[in-house]
Each structure stands twice: as C-alpha cells, then as structure tokens.
Write a structure and sequence with these properties.
By secondary structure, this protein is mainly beta. The protein has helices spanning about 115-125, 365; strands at about 25-30, 45-50, 65-75, 80-90, 90-105, 105-110, 135-140, 145-155, 160-180, 195-210, 220-235, 240-255, 265-280, 290-300, 305-320, 330-345, 350-360, 370, 375-380, 395-405, 410-420.
Length: about 425
C-alpha cells in the first residue's frame, strides 16, 4: 500500500486477511517486469500496489472537496460505503476518510460439504436429530470491515512531506469446519456448533515525501516509512483461541539520478522489521523477530524512439531470530531482471521481460509446530521436522506482451513461462 508492506499477518497463513482496502484507492497498480524488484526480491510474478489519497502531493484547487461511494452486490450480499474529504489552504492540506463494508454468508449452488464427506458422515451413522445438510449457503462466511485515516501534508514548490494516521478493523468467519462443544450437552439442551472467526485490529502511522533536487548527479528523492500495531484473535465460539501480534516497521528511500547518456533511473535502500508473537494454547508459531535490509537499482536505456531497455537488481539480507528458535535464519537473496520495449508502430507496443529472483523461506515454513485452528490442520516447519533451514526458492520468469491502443480500442495479449527451483510447499506428511 503506497509502496510499502501491509505489515499484517497475512503472510503467516492463507486465512489471515490482507489489511489493504481498495474502496478508497485512487488507483491500483499491477507492477510487472524489472520495476518489481524495487519492492521485494520475492515478488517474482509481480505485485499489487494500492495507491490512496492519504498523501496530498499538490496544492488543492479548492479549499474543500469530497467524494462519496456507495455499493452493493447480490453475490455475497455486500453493502459498502466510503467518504473522503480534502481541505486546507496554501501549503497545508488535510485528508480524512472512512469506509465500511459488510457481507452475508455466501450463497452457493449446492451442498456446502462435498459428496465424499456427506457419504462418510452417512456411513458413520447419518445426521443427528434436527440436523440438516447445509444446501445453498456456505455458513460462517460473513464479514464486517471498517477503517479510516486522518492525514496532513506540507506542500512546497519542490515537493511535499506528509503523515497519515490510520485504523483498520475486521471480523470475519473461517468456513469449511467448526468445533463442537467439548462437554456433552445436558438433557434437553441442543449441542451447539462453535464456528471459528477472526477479529483483527490494526493501527498504523505512515510518513511520505518527495522532493526534486537540482544537483549535478541527483534529480530527486522519494521516501516512505510506516510503523504498525497489528493484533488479531482467532475465536472458537465465544472462547479466545489464539492471539497474533505483529509490531512492524517498513521504510525505503529512492534517489533518482541525472540522465547519463541514454541511461536514467533510480537506486535506493529499504529496511523492514517485524516482531511477531502468537499467544494461546494452540499457537503454532514461536515468537520471532524478522529483519531485512535491501539495496536496489533500476535503470532505463532509451536506445531510440522505438526501443527502450530496462534493467533492475536487488540484494536482500534477511534474518529471523528468537529465544525459542532452535536454528536462526540469516541469508541473502539476489534478484535481477531485464526487459525490452519495442514500439512497432504508433498503435502497437511489444514488451518482453526476463527475471531471475530468489525468495527467502517464511517463518511458517521454517518454524511452525502445532495445531492451526483456523486452517484445521497440524503444521510443522522444516526446522521442527529436523530437516534444518530450507534453501531459497529460485524463480525464473519470462513474459511477452503485445499491447494495442487505437482510437476506440485498447487491448493486450500476454504469454508467460514461470519455472521455480527448490519450490517450498505445504505437503501432507501423514505423521501423527
């Protein structure tokens, strides 16, 4: 979001929500090719960057402007709304926004359970009295999400600097399984199902700035920084299961250099830290501190009016430490990419990109050990299984795109080949 990590717990498990909201987005960027390495060595297939209006970069044309968005759909019973206001005068400008979205249980064209599972339950004794097969709806898929921000920017002739304070709250269900009460119901009582839900809160402070420079070598500077307080609770009915806590920080600085012959581009540094803790009887991840430091470079070569070459490289050193970790992780990863753009005519553009990148294993892939309630499985990492530290994934990606833009039509056709060596996967082990 705005060029920085979301700083949530979404990387630890697929049932954890990404705390990025598109309802307030000014634009959503799909970044592919050499420019991807400006943001991370593990983003081999590209990345999604949501850019919002929380940082005002230019003086406001009017002392106040605002926008309202309302939406609904019948697919998941969505009802959402957002409001945004920008106000100020002279060099000072403020931004305030708020959104809310709620969804119902998802309607489906059949049974919620598979045919195999229904046959297995029937073979084990059939349905309990009063119990019905769930048809036409996936239970426990509803959600309620809200958030907002308040920001202020100082704008000058050469650039801007701004700060934003934001919050994000969400509660949603995890479908596909439930837990029954441990103690049998008393006579006359009905046994209740305990659905698993996640209740999360995030508060975040962002700092951003851009300034044009007029030196013999540097032409501009751009910086971004964020600190984050994230917590979510996995609820089993009314009981608290596991609490996930993430205290994170992410910062980057980019320097744009002057044109050197046919070459112009940028280089920079990025630092990221994440302190993670899972609390509860069913916490399947140990407490850990992750830290990474990266340097990156992006260059563009305008060979002619019809040919442009692009190149990028990134080196990222990452460490994972913690008092309860049997083995610490401390490795470097490298990535490089080369791209070419050929303007065949005024209406047709052809681009090709080749990237070779390395990805660090995650904390979950290395150190998981325990019951993951929301995913309904027992997880073990490579270190926990006694297999030591995993090697880095190496991804080789080649894509070719033909893009057309005429008066009435805009279109693109893309083909790609991705090959990954030492691929890290979640694999059943059949261990008890």
């Amino acid at each position: 979001t705005n060029g920085l990590d979301s700083l949530d717990a979404s990387a630890f498990s697929e049932d954890h929500q990404v705390t990025v909201e598109s309802l307030l987005a000014q634009r959503i960027e799909i970044v592919r090719g050499p420019a991807t390495l400006l943001y991370g060595s593990g983003a081999a297939g590209g990345l999604v960057n949501v850019v919002d209006t929380r940082f005002i970069k230019e003086p406001l044309e009017k002392s106040f402007n605002g926008a309202v968005a309302l939406g609904a759909d019948t697919a998941v019973g969505t009802r959402d709304g957002a409001v945004r206001a920008q106000f100020g005068a002279g060099n000072i400008a403020f931004n305030a926004d708020y959104f809310n979205r709620s969804t119902d249980d998802i309607e489906i064209p059949g049974f919620a359970e598979s045919k195999v599972l229904r046959e297995l339950e029937e073979a084990e004794g059939g349905e309990e009295e009063g119990e019905e097969e769930m048809f036409g709806v996936a239970e426990n898929t509803d959600s309620e999400t809200s958030g907002g921000a308040l920001g202020v920017s100082y704008i000058s002739d050469n650039g801007f600097v701004g700060v934003s304070f934001s919050g994000f709250d969400s509660e949603y269900g995890i479908p596909g399984h439930h837990h029954e009460e441990e103690e049998p119901p008393l006579p006359g009582e009905v046994e209740e199902e305990e659905f698993v839900r996640i209740d999360l809160e995030q508060t975040r402070v962002d700092l951003a700035g851009e300034y044009d420079l007029d030196t013999s070598f540097l032409r501009g500077i751009r910086f971004r920084a964020a600190v984050n307080d994230y917590e979510h609770t996995e609820l089993e009915g009314a009981e608290t299961g596991t609490i996930y806590d993430v205290q994170g920080a992410d910062g980057r600085i980019e320097l744009r250099h002057a044109k050197l012959g046919v070459m112009e581009g940028a280089f920079g540094l990025q630092y990221r830290r994440e302190d993670f803790a899972a609390i509860g009887d069913e916490a399947f991840l140990p407490k850990s501190d992750s830290e990474s430091f990266s340097i990156f470079l992006f260059e563009e070569f305008a060979l002619s009016d019809t040919w442009i070459l692009q190149a990028s490289a990134r080196y990222e050193d990452q460490s994972i430490s913690g008092a309860d970790l049997v083995e610490k992780y401390d490795e470097g990863a490298f990535g490089a990419s080369l791209g070419a753009v050929w303007r065949a005519s005024d209406d047709i553009r052809v681009s090709a990109n080749l990237a070779v990148t390395e990805r660090h294993p995650t904390t979950t892939e290395l150190y998981a050990d325990g019951v993951h309630v929301a995913a309904d499985r027992y997880e073990r990492g490579s270190v926990t299984l006694g297999n030591g530290i995993l090697g880095k994934e190496t991804s080789t990606n080649l894509d070719l795109t033909v893009h057309g833009d005429t008066t009435r039509w805009e279109w693109s056709i893309t083909g790609f080949v991705n090959s990954v060596d030492d691929y890290i996967l979640l694999r059943p082990t059949a261990l008890e």
